[in-house]
Each structure stands twice: as structure tokens, then as C-alpha cells.
Amino acid sequence: EDKVVQSPLSLVVHEGDTVTLNCSYEVTNFRSLLWYKQEKKAPTFLFMLTSSGIEKKSGRLSSILDKKELFSILNITATQTGDSAIYLCAVPSGGTSYGKLTFGQGTILTVHP
Amino acid sequence: EPEVTQTPSHQVTQMGQEVILRCVPISNHLYFYWYRQILGQKVEFLVSFYNNEISEKSEIFDDQFSVERPDGSNFTLKIRSTKLEDSAMYFCASRGGQPVGNSPLHFGNGTRLTVT
Questions:
Q1: Complete domains list, chain B, with CATH
Q2: Which of A35, B17, B55, B89 could cross-link with A46 by S-S, CB 3.0 to 4.6 Å?
Q3: pLDDT, tens digit, for every residue of A16-41?
Q4: Which residue does chain A place closest to B107, by CA atoms?
């Protein structure tokens, strides 16, 4: 059974801090790893990673994948209160579908002013 | 930016009643999905739908559940006889791309279903 484990489960920081969120996975047929941000409602897409060692970056957020050690990290620099959310990691699992995702339990990030 | 829309945002129903959750996926997407998230738990896959048929479903998606794409824009999830444990946030998602293309899912804002 495919599995995704995220750590820490929750994190409380102050504005300006840098955070690193972790995601480890076990999947039979690895195709990609995705990060989503979930505020009150829909998970919104952040990154899709397919290759080891290539950093993806969007503003203050960046992510990298290590396919040998089966993990990914999501970094957020100079955190802001608007970064407070649940960050979800997911991998496509089963068959050839890219849309059947196995999610981790999420990391709840709280950024205080 | 195009988005997945879901209605209603909140639905309260009595145990044993039928509910239909509605979704309008992004217009040029070909693949449609339902996920659910019980409060405090992981987001879980329910079913995927492509070319007017179910392509994959989870163990959760039993005979009480069905999906339909009644026209060119809507995608619905029906729960025939709701149980208390069906209470959850239900997310619709869609994605474009080829059958083996690696495009991400885009999620709607969800319908919170409360079964009393």
C-alpha cells in the first residue's frame, strides 16, 4: 500500500522565520510528488516534482525531491501570516492514473505576527 | 484563472436520505475526481472518471455512491442512502492532459456534508 508521511504535524513560527516541511513516501510506481496548500477550503496546487535534485521555486516557496531517499522538502522563507495553512504532500498511486493521489496527513503551519 | 466550482458549499441531510453533490470542472479538462476529507483526517480518493465512465474507485466508493456527467459541464456525486459516517468535506477535482500526462489536480472549494 502506498504511503505518505509528513512531519512535523504542526509548526508554530513568527513572521520572518524560515520553515522546512518534510514529506517521505513509499509508492510502488513513482511518477511524481505534489505539494498543495490548504487554507479554509480547497487544496491549491503549489509544486509538482518529478526529478531528483532539481529545485522548484515560486516566490518565497521552494521544494526539492530526493528519489533515492524517498523524500521531499518544502521550504518557506521569510514567512508571513498569510502562509498559515495546512501543507499537503501527495503522490499518484495505483495503475497509470496521475489523478488518484495518496495524501499525507498534512503539516499545520501557524505564523504569528 | 479557471476554477472548479462546487455546489452547495454546505449540505445537511438526515440519515437515509439521498444527496447529490454538484461540480463544474475546468472546461477543457478531461479527467474528473471526487475526494473526501473527514474532519481531522487525510484527504482520501473516492473515484476517477474519464470518457464517461469510472476509471478507478476506492474501497470507500461502494454501491451507495455513484457519479454522473449528465451534460457537458456538470459532474455529480450521488450518495443513495446517507450514513452518519458519510459526514465529511467532499472535494471535486479535475485535470487536463493526456492519458499518461503528468498534470496536477485542481480542486474545488468542497461541499461540507453533515448527516444527522
A1: 5-96+109-115 (2.60.40.10)
A2: A35
A3: 999 999 999 999 888 899 999 999 88
A4: A42
